[in-house]
Amino acid sequence: MIPGMEPLPLPLEGITVVAVEQAVAAPFATRQLADLGARVIKVERIDGGDFARGYDTAAGGLASHFVWCNRGKESIALDLKDPRGLDVVRQLVAGADVFVQNLAHGAAARLGLDAATLCAAHPRLVAVDISGYGPSGPYAGKRAYDMLVQCEAGLVSVTGTPEQPVKAGIPAADIAAAMYAFSGVLAALVRRGVSGRGGPVEVSMLDALAEWMGHPLHHAMHGGTPPARTGLAHAVIAPYDAYPTADGWGSPHAPSGQWGRVLLSVQNDREWRRLAEQVIKRPELGSDPDFATNAARVVNRERTDALVGAALGGLGADEAVGLLERAGVACARLRDVQQLAEHPQLAARERWREVGSPVGPLRALLPPITLPGGGEARMGDVPALGEHTVALLRAVGMADVKIAALRRDGVIA
Predict the structure, then answer these.
(1) What are the residues facing 354 on neighbouring strands?
(2) What is the spatial distance between Cα 161 and Cα 150, in angstroms, rounded to a whole number?
(3) Could you give the CA distance from residue 210 to residue 320 in angstroms, rounded to a whole number?
(4) Is 71 in contact with 363 (CB distance < 8 Å)?
(5) How far is residue 276 from each of residues 279, 289, 307, 315, 391, measured CA to CA in Å?
(6) Distance of alpha carbon 406 from alpha carbon 400, whole angstroms
(7) What's the rounded Cα separation, in Å, for the pair 408 and 404?
(8) Of 48, 137, 232, 376, whose CA is between 20 and 30 Å from 35?
(9) Sheet order of strands, 199-204 included
């Protein structure tokens, strides 16, 4: 809170979002909206719901993807192939500010739930279509899963080692599309506040990830050659890599589960001179023409890396990090995901919370957007499939006898 000021409400309080969504791209976008105070109504299939619910059982019996992307939402389970189920969605949309969908190509249009159709009927509505490759063009109908789009966008061509391209270890295409959908909704809501009109928002996974490929893309287009795959090394800066320490794998000093490598980054020649003097202990390398400039160090990368590796190899990881920091050289520990979960910086800044779920409390990170002067992000429960079906149907004025009939006929769950 800011002293002397009344606390501000969360910025999306009073905004209602209806989402016909699945997997990661749309659910992650709408989770950002929920965290900022929006009411998010998640429409799921009656036969199992969002298929991400079945990806794994790692989160206490729930799927880790689903827990990550769906806290703070209300779940209603409907059969959209039945006109009665589809009519419920239309009633929910009529009272909503935002609609988001990422169904397979053409499916939303067949149901009348595409952005153009909905915005024509509801001029103040912001309606988002998230797709793999966009609504037109030769790839419009092509199946688009995250790893496939990583391949099409060229991400795997710049990720990995010289011998082997690899995919990113996170669903980068899904996340990119989600964050552009999220920011697109915010922009459209601002425009609505000025003009009174909402309007369609289109986001494709390929467009989003192609934008994130900006540096290697421009390097290739304007420089003539694509950046090489260099593992943890930087393609055009040296030294910029991970180096083993005495705590590395196979060392008798290696703590269980610890990677024992330290990554350092020398961004300019002044930093190189400090590294040479204070870490490598050979100050003459600061003026040696084979190493004095970044261009020379890249040409002599193997020799540069050997010098750094020799200096750090006899040190423990903590000792190496301390020495590099005292020398003013940027560095980091290589951590695995379990070590991330115990990261001292996240703990010191109290970034962890617990959210409710059908299997009990689960640990979760506060969202990255912090709004000093207002309330903390709303990190609601992870919903069970159809947990809010009856309440939502009653809210649109449906009598209990009709709700019972829909359940009997398999239209709701």
Answers:
(1) 363
(2) 16
(3) 37
(4) no
(5) 6, 13, 9, 16, 67
(6) 10
(7) 6
(8) 48
(9) 73-77, 39-44, 16-20, 98-101, 126-131, 199-204
Residue showing tokens 């990806």: 55
In Å, how far from its chain's centre is CA 292?
39
**Burial class of residue 34, CB neighbours in 10 A (0-12, 13-18, 19+):** buried
How far is 178 from 343, CA to CA, in rounded Å? Answer: 26
* Bridge partner list, 333: 262
- Amino acid identity at 6: E
Q: Which stretches within 95-204 are classed as H helix?
A: 107-111, 115-121, 146-152, 172-195
Task: Give the 3-state secondary structure of residue 147.
Answer: helix
Rg (C-alpha) for the chain, rounded Å, is 26
Q: Which amino acid is at 244?
A: P
Is the pTM higher than 0.90? The answer reads yes
Look up residue 32 and give its amino acid: Q
Strand partners, 131: 204
How far, in Å, CA of 162 to CA of 229, rounded? Answer: 5
pLDDT tens over the chain, length 413 residues: 566 678 899 999 999 999 999 999 999 999 999 999 999 999 999 999 999 999 999 999 999 999 999 999 999 999 999 999 999 999 999 999 999 999 999 999 999 999 999 999 999 999 999 999 999 999 999 999 999 999 999 999 999 999 999 999 999 999 999 999 999 999 999 999 999 999 999 999 999 999 999 988 998 899 878 888 888 888 889 999 999 999 865 444 444 434 689 999 999 999 999 999 999 999 999 999 999 999 999 999 999 999 999 999 999 999 999 999 999 999 999 988 999 999 999 999 999 999 999 999 999 999 999 998 888 999 999 999 999 999 999 999 999 999 999 999 999 99
Contact 101, 129 (CB under 8 A): yes
- The DSSP secondary-structure symbol of 9 reads P
**CA separation, residue 121 to residues 13, 99, 113, 186 (Å):** 24, 13, 11, 21
**One-letter identity of residue 394:** R
Q: How far apart are CA 34 and CA 185, in angstroms?
A: 12
Q: State the amino acid at position 378 in one-letter form.
A: R
